[in-house]
Amino acid sequence: MGGIDADLIAAVAPFLWDGLCTSLELLVLAMAGGISLGAILAVIRIAGPKPLAALAATYVNGLRSIPLIMVILWFYLLMPLATGRPIGAFTSALVAFTIFEAAYYSEIIRAGIQSISKQQLAAATASGLSPLQAYRFVVLPQAFRNMTPILLSQSIALFQDTSLVYVVGLRDFMTAVSVTANREGHLVAFYLFAALVYFVLCSTGAQSVQLLKKSMVSQ
Amino acid sequence: MTIPLRLDSRNFVRDELDLVLRPVVIAIDHVSKKFGDLDVLKQCSMTVLKGEVVVVCGPSGSGKSTLLKCVNGLEGFQAGTITVAGTSVGERRTDLTKLRSQIGMVFQHFELYPHLTVLQNITLAPIQVLGRTKSAAFDKAMSLLRRVGLADKADCHPGQLSGGQQQRAAIARALAMDPIAMLFDEPTSALDPETISEVLDVMTGLARDGMTMMVVTHEMGFARHVANRVVFMDGGCILEEAAAEAFFAQPSTERARSFLSKILRQQ
To answer: In CATH, which of 1.10.3720.10, 3.40.1650.10, 3.40.50.300, 1.10.8.60 is domain A6-218?
Structure first.
C-alpha cells in the first residue's frame, strides 16, 4: 500500500467524478420532480375539494413522519414486486426521493402561497381573470419569489441526503469514495476528502441563497 | 326610489327627464347577508343609473364595503338580488368572471401587483381576458396613464410609487377594461392627506366624463360636489337615499345627522 501520489489521484479521479455526477443528477431530477409534485399537493390542499385535500394532507404528514432511508429501501424492494421486473437502483432511488421530498417542498410552497394577501387574489379576479389565471399570473409568481430561498435551502439538504442511496448499492459520490477508500487504503484521507467536497458544495450553495435573499430584500 | 334632483341646473326639467330615462346599471334589491349569526346586510335596496355617481357612506362596520363587494360577487349574499346591466350576480349560472371583466374595482390598499411594472399591471387583464394584442393594450395603457398623470411611471414597480400614485395607477388598471361601471372601496382611506386630492381629482374627472360610479368613501367634499346621490348606511341597513344636496342640507334621520356632524368636524 503506497502513499497518496499523483498516480493514485489520477487513477481514482474518474471513478469519483462519475459518483459525483450521479449524486448531482439525482439531486437535479429529484428537485424537479419533488417541486412539481409538491406544487400540485400544495394547490390541492389550498384550493382542492375537501376529501382530496385531506388525502394530500395525510400523504404529506405521513411521509414526513418516516425516515428517508426506509423509503429508499422499501421502494427498491417493493417496486420489482409491483412492476414484475427490477427497475434499477437509480430509478427506484429517484422515485423514492421525489415522493419523499415532495412532502417537504409542498409545505414550503403552501406557506409561500398563503403568504400572499387574499386581497391580491380579489384584485385579480375583480379584473376579470379566472381563478386559474389569477393564480398563474398574480399569486404564484409572487409566492415563488418569496419561497425560492427556502426551496433552495431544502435542496441543499436533499443533496446531503443523496448519500443515503448506498443502501441500494447506487454508486453516488459517497459510495464511490467509500469503495475507493476500502480498496486503496487511506480511509481517513478519502473520507476527509469526501467531507471537504460536500462542505464546499453545500456552503457555496448556502452562501448563494444568502446573497439571493439580500438582493431580494434590497429590490 | 327618489329621483335625483339637480336644483342648480338651469336645464332642470331636461336633466330630470334625462335621469329618469337613463337605464339602471346596478340594481340592488332587498339584499341580506349574514356572517354566522351576525347580520351584515339587512334588506338593502338601491340603484345606480347610467352615468350616475352614488356615494355610499356611514360609520365603519355599517356594511358599506360589504355591499359594494356583493355587486361584483367578491362577497356572496343569502337573500335578495343584485343585477348589473341585466345580469343577476347571485345566480349560480352567471359567469362571474365575465361579469367582473365589465366592472372596474378600486381597492382601499390599491392592490397593484408588486412583481409587475405599472404598465404590466394595466395590460395583464386586457391581454389575458379580452384577448387584446400587446400593442393595442400598450397604447390604451399609455393613454390612460397620461390621463391620470403617470405616463413617466409606466416602467416603475408599484413599490417605487407614492400611495396617491399607486391608487391612480390602480384606477388606470380598472379603466383599461372599458368597464360599464366602476366600484370604489374607500379609495382614499389609506392615503396621506396631501395625496388624497390627486386621487379625488382623477375620480372627479371620471365622473365628469359620464362614468357610472358607486363610491364607498368618507370624503364628504367629494360626495357633496361630485355625487348625484348619497346613500347612508348604519348597522347593515340603508337608512337614507337622497340627492346629494338634499342629504347635506337636511338629512332625514338622526343617525345621519350625528354622523355628518362628526365627520364634517373632522374634515
So the answer is: 1.10.3720.10
Tell which of A115, A121, A125, A127 to mutate to test the B interface (max B CBs under 10 Å).
A127
ipTM above 0.85, yes or no: yes
What are the pLDDT digits (tens) for B147-168? 999 999 999 999 999 999 999 9
Q: Identify all chain A residues contacting B111, using CB atoms and an 8 Å cutoff.
A: 119-120, 122-123
CA dist A41 and A60 (Å) reads 8
Cβ of residue A125 closer than 8 Å to a chain B Cβ:
yes
CA neighbours within 13 Å on the CB side: how many for A80?
A: 8
What is the per-residue DSSP string for B32-79? EEEETTEEEEEEEEEEEETT-EEEEE-STTSSHHHHHHHHTTSS--SE
Residue of chain A nearest B71, judged by CA positions: A126
pTM: 0.80
CB-nearest partner of A133 from B98, B128, B174: B128
Contact A142 B105 (CB under 8 A): no
The pLDDT tens digits for A148-195 are 889 999 999 999 999 999 888 899 999 999 999 998 888 898 999 999
Q: What does the domain layout of chain A look like in residue ranges?
A: 6-218
Q: Which of B98, B109, B177 sits opposite A127 (nearest CB)?
A: B177
* Cβ–Cβ under 8 Å, residues B177 and A128: yes
Instruction: Round to whole Å and give the CA distance between A178 and A180.
Output: 5
